[in-house]
Amino acid sequence: MAKHLKPSILLFFLLSAFTSGAQDIHFSQFYHNPLYLNPANTGLFSGDQRFSAIYRNQWAEVPVPYMSMAGSFDEKIYVPGLNNGLLTWGLSFTRDEAGDGNLSWTILQASFAYIQQVADEWYLSGGVELGAGQRAFEADKLFFGDQFNGDIFDPNLQTGEGFDQTSAGFFNLGTGVSLYFQDLDSRSMAYFGLAGHNLNQPGLSFFNLDKVQLPMRTSVHALGVFELSPDWDIGVQAQWQDQGPYQEVVVGAFGKVHLSKEAGEALAVRAGMGYRFGDALILETGVNYLNWRLVISYDVNTSPFRIATNQRGGPEVSLRHIITKVKPPDEFKSCPIF
């Protein structure tokens, strides 16, 4: 009986998120999920088009693991007449799923930004995001205590538990700004960002009652990569997030060695470490090859929950690809063919 009562208890805690204040998805490699981090990051990269993806599987040691994934595409729009400015746009998809009832978030967002060069090596970007999402679960995958007939548990028994609906949709709005620096004489770069998500604080509920608002999420973040020598770089990153009663602080650093810098053969490997205060130690390693980047990280749980997780937080994998188009020359000679 106790085995089958767990989903009922789980459902209580998962649905209580609506009454205690919901929380957005988070990633350890927040700096590799650019559009989710800040809409002002749309198009803020060296190149023309960017594809990004990230996957996280958290707490596999406990009965209710969390799966989170996100993907995005963004590109620059070159508009004649803009004085050292660029328009950019992007699309992102986020999915999170947890527990026996597959309690999930699904969010699709469009983001738009304007990037203005403010000095030789400095760029200021402002962006907005417009999204639609759904919170849902699968009631038929859950079991309840009243399906115990007095002798045994019978999953075919009707349960008295009921829900007005098993999904709830919402719209959300967000905005942000970023300041980006790129050293023209080296690989050194840095950016600083501030973003606000869920500005409209959408309401959610599985019952025909007053909806509970999704709190606004504020994020302050920074990333820097500095060239130490022709072959070595060092990088640092940090993020502070606040959402209702929840706060998150993550800091980290990594080293990168360039094994080849030849055109068409560029190859670098990296390794680093981070820490999410009060929660987990983050270990990472990765490789850059041409315009591809793959990074794998793993959380080692350090919070009191480590008793249940056996200190295993979860793996996370991110992949990025950038396309740079060949620009036509400003002036060229006509060469007639006879």
Low-confidence stretches: 1-21
How many beta-strand elements?
16
CATH architecture label: Beta Barrel
Average residue pLDDT: 84
Task: Order the strands across the largest sheet as they lie in space.
Answer: 1-2-3-4-5-6-7-10-11-12-13-14-15-16
Q: Rough shape?
A: globular
Overall radius of gyration: 23 Å
Order of helices and strands: HHHEEEEEEEEEEEEEEEHE
Number of helical segments with 4 or more residues? 4
Under CATH, the topology can be stated as Porin
Structural class: mainly beta
Main sheet makeup: 14 strands, antiparallel, barrel
Tell me the β content.
over 45%
Total separate domains: 1
Distance between the termini: 88 Å
Helix content: under 10%
- CATH homologous superfamily title: Outer membrane protein transport protein (OMPP1/FadL/TodX)
Index terms:
Porin, mainly beta, two-stranded antiparallel sheet, 14-stranded antiparallel β-barrel, disordered N terminus
Write the layout of secondary structure elements.
Layout: H1 2-15, H2 17-20, H3 34-37, E1 49-58, E2 66-77, E3 85-98, E4 103-119, E5 122-136, E6 167-182, E7 189-197, E8 203-204, E9 212-213, E10 217-227, E11 232-243, E12 246-260, E13 267-276, E14 280-289, E15 292-301, H4 306-309, E16 312-323
Report on this model:
With 338 residues, the protein is mainly beta. The chain has a single domain (2-155, 164-323), classed as Porin (Beta Barrel), CATH 2.40.160.60. Helices cover 8% and strands 52% of the residues. The protein contains 4 helices and 16 strands. The strands form 2 sheets. It has a 14-stranded antiparallel beta barrel. The chain has a two-stranded antiparallel ribbon with strand order 8-9. A hairpin with a 6-residue loop joins strand 12 and strand 13 (267-276). The model is unreliable at 1-21 (pLDDT under 50).
